[in-house]
Each structure stands twice: as C-alpha cells, then as structure tokens.
Amino acid sequence: MRMTPTFWTRLGLAAAALAAAAVALGASAPGAFASAPAPDPDSGAELIGAPAKAWTFDRWLRTKPLALKELRGKVVLLRWWTEGCHYCTTTLPVLDRVREREAANGLVVIGVFHPKPPRVVSDRHIIEVARQIGFTGPIAVDQSWSTLDRYWLDDNPKRNWTSVSFLIDRNGVIRWVHGGGEYHPSDDPRHASCDLQYRDFEKTLATVLAEKPTASR
Questions:
Q1: Fold annotation for 50-210
Q2: I need a labelling partner for 188 at 20 to 30 A (CA). Which of 1, 20, 84, 216 fits?
C-alpha cells in the first residue's frame, strides 16, 4: 500500500487529536473522581421518614404532661427555643399563629425550652420569656437537654444548632426537619431563605394535616 502525503497528514491529525483528548482526560480526571460534598449536618434529612423517639422532658407548663403515644392521630410540631435567641424571637410568634389556625385540624405545637447552658430556670421566668416573645402554647422544659440530645445532637456531633424543629405526622413519623435558626414569611430579600424554608414548612404541614392516621397494630 502506497503511503501518500495525504495519508501521513491525516495520520498526524489523528495522533494530535488523540493526544489532546488524553490531556483533556488527564486534566478532568481529578474533578471527575472527586468525592461528593459532605452532607449538611444541620439538614436533618436522614431523619425524615423515621419514627419519632419518645421524649422525656423534665416538666410541662401551661398543659398537663403530654406523651407522644397519647398524641397519635395528631400532627405535632416540636420547636426547641431558649432565652436570648433572636431566631426563636422571630419564629415562635409565627408558629403560635399557625397553632391557633390549625388547632381544630389536629395540630399541636409544643415549644421546648432548653436553657443555655443547661441549668435550673424557674417556671415563672420561662413563662414570662415566652410571653414576651409571643408564644402562648404549651411548653415542655428540656432542662438537661436529654431529649434534644436523643432527637438531634447524639446522631451527629457536627450539628451547629439547637433551635431545631420536627414535624411529626399522625402516625408518629418525622416528616419535616428544620435544623435551627429562623423560618418565617418575609418579603425582605435579606430573609429570602427564611421565607423559602417557611413555605416548605407550610407545604409539608398542609400535606400532613390532610392525611388520615393508619390503624395501630
């Protein structure tokens, strides 16, 4: 077979193309095989769909003691809060209005007070702080953080927040988690994330309230 100049030109072009492809592959390989970013420890996504754990609060204010098993058939929102927490001040009044709006539909909102640092705080003081914030619903006192640890902190030591929320459906299953901070409606661009998270909460709440509990086995 006669090797014409055209043949050698084509062969050279093919070799150059292969070399360029090899260089490109080598340059992109580290990115292609880079590990996926670590999940956000405060998302709580791994808890959604899991049965909610029984709680062991130290005491209750404004209500008789409530047990999770006794609330089966209700939708329960737990929101941990504390004194001097800006995020609690902006979120709790909103949740109190949701509580009043949806109480007839089976929603129970429990504000879980956890002192920072863990210590003894009088009932009178807790109630006064809640009044100033604008939360009038039932209060559970997690004085030693025992339930906060079991629900949130023990699962991941990298968690950054304690002002967390859990929405539990009528069957006792966790359906929505807010890993701390604030969520509330807002048209302020600085609070766009708060508004987005609140909309997500309202959407999930509507879904859960519309569901019927399954029969206990």
A1: Glutaredoxin (3.40.30)
A2: 84
